[in-house]
Design a protein that fits this description.
It contains 8 helices and 5 strands; from the N terminus they run αββααβββααααα. By secondary structure, the protein is mainly alpha-helical.
Length: about 270
């Protein structure tokens, strides 16, 4: 009983030490393990490391193209996020991109093999920026710290009661269970949420939200085998395409209003 009370007390402390907020889609989040200033610093350091380790493209046309899409997307962000975002184009054949706290966007040249036009590139960049403005980095750090602490406490309790071998085994099994059933499902939730936010941003900026569907069709065509959905940090592609398509239909009035208001991107 005392051990159970200890775990409950520590769990309560972990929860109350963090802030409860709502994501852009209205989902309850636990954040606050690190400050925004610390997140921005971590983002800046990771961005600097990436630029130091990877070849940065000097292709003026491609750099201007990516910068144009980033600028058009970020102009639609809430006031607190409308800073000048730093952009780097990496010479890398993998079709990938990322965004980091502190206003950093990295894009691999390989993304052009699947993002065939500016609307599809906007779907990629909007999605990645969606992670940042939805505070997903903060949320992941907060959850991971809480999970690691609880697993350590649980294995220590079992080790004290039944011996160190049992405690170590419990910690290993608990870590695997947490990764599979707690942390990874959260990642899928974040990926879906970034799709929602990114598609909205793209439509508000005057990019065709329907092109997100074409992007993912291109992704599937370029991809290989995938792990089962429940072991992946990304939603199943076919499910994702259906959701993107349904959402695009609802965003067409937003897109058309943006175009009528003069938001007509001419990035490439």
């Amino acid at each position: 009983m005392k051990r159970a009370l200890l775990v409950a007390a520590v769990t309560a402390c972990l929860v109350t030490a963090c802030a409860t907020t709502q994501s852009p889609t209205g989902r309850t989040q636990y954040v606050g393990a690190v400050s925004q200033a610390q997140l921005d610093q971590l983002g800046a350091q990771a961005f600097a490391d990436a630029k130091a380790k990877q070849k940065v493209s000097t292709d003026a046309r491609q750099n201007a193209y990516v910068r144009c899409v980033v600028d058009d997307i970020t102009r639609e962000l809430p006031a607190g996020w409308q800073t000048q975002w730093d952009v780097a184009l990496f010479v890398d054949d993998s079709p990938n991109a990322f965004a980091l706290p502190g206003g950093k966007v990295g894009v691999n040249t390989g993304i052009f093999t699947v993002a065939k036009n500016q609307d599809q590139l906007a779907a990629v960049i909007g999605h990645e920026i969606g992670h940042v403005v939805s505070r997903h980095h903060d949320e992941r750090i907060t959850k991971q710290q809480g999970t690691s602490t609880l697993l350590g406490i649980g294995s220590a309790i079992l080790g004290g009661a039944y011996g160190s071998n049992v405690g170590n085994a419990a910690g290993q099994l608990g870590g695997a269970a947490a990764q599979t059933f707690y942390l990874l499902p959260n990642s899928r939730t974040q990926e879906t949420e970034a799709d929602v936010v990114g598609q909205q941003l793209a439509a508000k900026a005057g990019f065709d939200p329907r092109q997100a569907v074409n992007l993912w069709q291109n992704m599937i065509g370029a991809g290989g085998s995938r792990p089962p959905q429940w072991l992946s940090t990304h939603p199943d592609p076919q499910s994702r395409i259906k959701e993107l398509g349904a959402r695009a239909d609802s965003l067409m009035p937003t897109y058309e209003q943006a175009r009528a208001s003069g938001h007509t991107p001419k990035c490439g």
